[in-house]
Amino acid sequence: MPFLLAISVGNTRTAVGHFHGDELHVVQHLANGDVGAIVAAACEQWEHKGDEDGEVVIASVNDPVATAVEAKLAGELHTDVWRVGRDIEVPIGRCLDDGATPGQDRLLAAAAAFAMMKQAVIVIDAGTAITVDFVDGEGVFHGGAIAPGAQMQLDAMHARTAQLPQLRFARPSDDEAFGRNTEAAMQLGVFEGIRGLTQALVERYASSYRAFPLVVATGGDAETLYSDSELVTRVAPDLVLRGILVAVRAAAETE
Question: Domain boundary at 64, 88, 112, which?
Fold first, then answer.
């Protein structure tokens, strides 16, 4: 496998990392508002390629940002830039309604989780939004649920009320069962609300499947939310980037 520069453009942030074989290196998460910083990080990581052949692949749920990054990178690196969905397909079956268009991030995370676990798996992606998706034992993506992410919930409470403050999401204190001030109560409500949501969805999916699948969590808030959760089998950072590697390898096998 040649050097792979993998870029995942999310709703609000972009992840940039590179692979030597199976190993993912130097993952950087950058705000989508600074395309120049994203391109600079990608160019810096490209230098790790050395004399190897290399590929650049972008996955995106935010096409205006991805298109800007692609154009600048092609000029800076003087190489082809491949896009998931346009040039490379996500190697996962789908059992969805006609016309359904799940985001590339959901499909890539699902493909990576199934490649990792090799059995039925539920994938929680805790980022700007919370997605909880189901992949069956044959590697078929069945969809799932989408809910507001932790920061989105806190932002909405601040924006839609007169008194609730603006907060950055953080894990509530384990020392207190109760939120004894407004900030603590908001953090506790969001934290336990998301954990309760995912618990209910996992149980719903398991009941439908008639077996209890493994559960993998990824995304920027996954460690905060699920590091001590008995529900989650594994917290796997940057699962979407790993899904890009899975997609590239699958495409190479079909050539």
Answer: 88
Q: 55, 70, 88 — which closes off a domain?
A: 88
* 39-45 long-range contacts, CB within 8 A, separation 24+: 39/69, 39/72, 39/73, 39/76, 41/16, 42/5, 42/7, 42/16, 42/69, 42/73, 42/77, 43/73, 43/76, 43/77, 45/5, 45/16, 45/17, 45/18
Query: What is the rounded CA–CA span in Å between residue 138 and residue 101?
Result: 21
Task: Quickly tell me which residue has 């290196």 as its tokens.
Answer: 25
In the chain the beta strands, taken as DSSP E runs, fall at 3-9, 13-20, 23-31, 54-60, 81-83, 93-94, 121-126, 129-135, 140-148, 214-218, 234-235
Q: Is residue 250 part of a domain?
A: no
Can 105 be counted among the known catalytic residues?
Answer: yes
The Cα-based distances of 214 to 122, 195, 200, 230 in angstroms read: 6, 16, 15, 11
Q: Which of 90, 70, 68 is nearest to 79 (CA)?
A: 70
Q: Which two tokens stand for residue 110?
A: 């699902």
pTM confidence score: 0.94
Tokens at 109, concatenated: 């995370």
Catalytic residue among 105, 125, 133, 221: 105
Do 231 and 119 belong to one domain?
yes
Residue 75 domain flag: yes
Which tens digit of pLDDT belongs to each residue from 216-241?
999 999 999 999 999 999 999 899 99
